[in-house]
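Our preliminary data section would be incomplete without showing what the modeling component actually yields. Below, a chain of 208 amino acids is followed by its predicted structure, encoded as C-alpha cells that our downstream tools consume directly.
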Amino acid sequence: MTKVKAKPRVAFQGEHGAFSEEAAFKALGPDIELIPRPTFAALFTSIDEGVADYIIAPLENSIIGPIRDSVELMRESSLVKTGEAVIPIAQHLIACPGVSFSEIEVVQSHPAALAQCGQFFAAHPYLSKVEAADTAGSVAQIMRRGDRGVAAIAGIRAAQIYGASVVKADIQDDPKTYTRFALLTSASSKAGANSSSKETKRKTSHAS
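Predicted structure:
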C-alpha cells in the first residue's frame, strides 16, 4: 500500500484570508496545509511546538518599509530562510453587507495595513483608526459583531471568505504596493531537504 505523503504545514500570522496565505501559496504551491497563528511571537514558535514545518513571515512593504516586529523576531530566531515570495498588496475598506461609506465611523486593521493607507485617512480625518492583530481577523470580527459603524482594511480574499462587502477598493497609498515574505524552516529540516535533493540528483545521474 502506497503511503500518502503529508502536505507541508505552513504557519502564518493572522486568520484565514490574510495576505500571508497568498505568500505561502506562491512560495510552496497550492498543496499545503495552512496553520493560522494569532501573533508574530506565536508564529515564530510554530516549528518548535511541532504545529508547522515552515513559517511564512513578512519582511518589508514597499510603502512602509520593514515589518519591524517580524524582522526582529527573525533576527533572534534560529530558523533559516529557505525561500522568498513577493506579492502585490491591494487594501480595501471592508464592511458588513449593505453598509454605506457614510455609516462608517471606525476603521480597524493591522498597524501595517493602516499605515499603508495614510492618504485615505488624511482625506477622511473623521474616521477613527483602531489597531488589531491582523487584517483578515478584523474582517471576521466585524462580521461576527454586525456593527455597521465599523469597517476593516484587508484584502479581497478576506471579504470573500467571511461574506463581507468592499465599500472602497484600493485605498493603499501606492497602487503598485507589494510585500516581501520569507519562508523559514528549522536548520535540521533544511539540511535534510538539501541532502535528499542531492541524493536524488546522484541517483538520477547514475541512472542516466
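The radius of gyration is 19 Å. Residues 195-208 have pLDDT under 50 and may be disordered. Preliminary results of this kind motivate Aim 1 of the renewal.
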